[in-house]
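Posting this for the archive.
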Amino acid sequence: MITITHLIGHIIFPLWSFYKLKRNFKDLKFAKVREDIGFLYEGVKTDTPMRAFYNVFFLMRKILTGLVIVFMKDAPIIQLIILLLISLVNFMYLIIYKPLETKL
C-alpha cells in the first residue's frame, strides 16, 4: 500500500508542479507567488516557460530513470539505450535553453 501511495505521489507531484507554474507563470516575480511556489523554480531563470519548468522536467527525468532501472532489469541493452536517450535529451535541453541561473 505504501508503495502504491509513493508511486501515485511521484506521478501527481510533477503534474501539480507543472499546473501551478503554468497557471502562475506571469506572476512568478511577485513575493506572494514566490512564497507559495518559489521552491518549484528556485535556481532557474523564469523569463520563458521552458526555463521556468526545468525543475519539473528534472524531476520527471529522475522518475523515468528510476522506472526504467526497476522495470527493465531483464533487458539491460534496452535499458542502456533508453537511459542514454534520456541523458541526451536533458543535455540538449540544458544547452539550448540554458535554464539555470548559475553556470554549470
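The chain has a mean pLDDT of 91. The chain is about 70% helix and 0% strand.
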